[in-house]
Design goal:
heterodimer, A: mainly alpha, 5 helices, 70% helix, B: 282 residues, mainly alpha, 11 helices
Chain lengths: 134, 282
């Protein structure tokens, strides 16, 4: 069996780093929310669970940002729900980054068939993310 | 219930889901969606959002280990992912046109049939006597990995490329239509049709489900289906669970994993049949 290649190690460590970073950000958001008893958009009151879980569309006690630019700017401003949202975006990015790194992996191996296959998958993935298909 | 109690229970359930998911190549949604809807009567939007997060967390959480140990067959996964992604796009396009409830029951029955097939090979650690097909050889889908539970390197070949490809397209279609259980179909496709070792099937499925989930995650995030209060404990719990799940995968023998998978497979099949009859599928 061939020894593990450098690209595979890069992918492995990259995944681990991405996952840990995402977890750290999410955890920080949770702690900030708990300590400040505030989501960044509304206070968290005790016995508030049914309000928190009811489906919201727009402003209200359960509000949280959904547009990535708003998520980032609100996270930088220190709003707990936005920080958690930012951690979620990081998590969602990890499979995408993995596929992109796999393109590099196949390039290094000069495996042109799989460069093509992986680029195809990456393209469908990015288009889906942006256009919301599937 | 206090919010903190809810979060703690959700975290605990997610750890379990992450461990099981990393072991079996599933996304944890199988456990989390019923738990959320039964426990809290949670709106289906938030349940699906949580499920998407759990799938990505399971996939990426376990992936670092499986890539490093070279159990995931990257070429196999990437090649099959072309089928899954196109199937998912097709599923999203025809979602309104097909009778989702009928399909749910039909697929549930298909899964039960697959469970029967796997039951007959439940004692196999590694499938015996698999001769690689010429197409699989041309696509370089065969592989080698070190199996700690057998204390040896396992060299394997795969076959049944068109059937596996077709099943993957179906798996993508199902995830686009119903939003559940595509990991199950992926494992079955690789195990039954392509005759890969069980550990290769589950770890490669683990890789693939993350890619498929990421494709739809964007739209769910923009729609506001990923609620921070719900998704946060799920993400953290799943990630912790994958640490346990990956250790288990390395130490258990393929036959043991197959048997655990069989139990979950039957549960998922019954969920699909029941959901189709009741009309509670998405």
């Amino acid at each position: 069996m061939e020894a593990i290649t450098r690209m595979e190690l890069v992918i492995s460590y990259g995944l681990r780093a991405g996952v840990l970073l995402s977890a750290a950000v999410i955890l920080f958001g949770i702690l900030l929310c708990a300590v400040s008893r505030n989501t960044g958009y509304a206070p968290i009151l005790p016995h508030h669970l049914s309000d928190i879980l009811a489906f919201h569309q727009g402003a209200g006690p359960g509000y949280f940002p959904t547009v990535p630019s708003a998520v980032v700017s609100d996270a930088v401003a220190g709003k707990p729900y936005a920080i958690i949202g930012f951690g979620m975006l990081l998590l969602i990015a990890t499979p995408v980054v993995r596929v992109a790194l796999s393109v590099v992996f196949f390039l290094v191996q000069r495996d042109w068939l799989y460069v093509g296959i992986t680029v195809f998958v990456l393209a469908v993935l990015l288009l889906s993310l942006v256009a919301g298909v599937g | 219930m206090e919010p903190i109690t809810f979060s703690a229970i959700l975290f605990g359930i997610s750890v379990l889901a992450g461990a099981l998911g990393a072991l079996l190549g599933l996304g944890g949604g199988v456990i989390i969606v019923p738990a959320l809807t039964l426990m809290a009567g949670l709106n289906i939007h938030y349940a699906i959002g949580a499920s998407i997060v759990s799938v990505i967390a399971t996939s990426s959480g376990a992936a670092a280990t499986y890539v490093r140990d070279r159990i995931t067959n990257l070429r196999l996964g990437m090649f099959l992912e072309t089928a899954t992604t196109t199937g998912a796009v097709a599923g999203a396009l025809v979602a309104g046109l097909l009778p989702g409830r009928v399909l749910s029951v039909v697929f549930g029955v298909v899964l039960l049939h697959a469970a029967w097939t796997m039951f007959r090979s439940r004692r196999d650690d590694v499938p015996a006597g698999v001769v690689g097909s010429p197409l699989a050889t041309r696509l370089r889908l065969h592989g080698v990995f070190y199996d700690p539970s057998l204390h040896r390197r396992v060299s394997y070949q795969v076959t049944g490329v068109p059937q596996g490809f077709g099943m993957m397209w179906l798996a993508g279609l199902i995830s686009g239509l119903l939003g559940i259980g595509s990991g199950v179909f992926k494992v079955i496709a690789m195990d039954i049709m392509m005759r890969a070792p069980m550990k290769v099937s589950t770890t490669t499925s683990n890789f693939m489900i993350g890619v498929t989930a990421a494709a739809s995650a964007g739209i769910y995030f923009l729609r506001g289906d990923i609620h921070p209060f719900i998704a946060a404990p799920v993400a953290l719990g799943i990630l912790l669970g994958t640490v346990v799940g990956t250790r288990l995968l390395l130490r258990l023998r393929g036959a043991a994993i197959r048997q655990v998978f069989l139990v979950v497979l039957i549960v998922v099949a019954l969920q699909m049949i029941w959901g189709g009859i009741q009309g509670t599928m998405r």
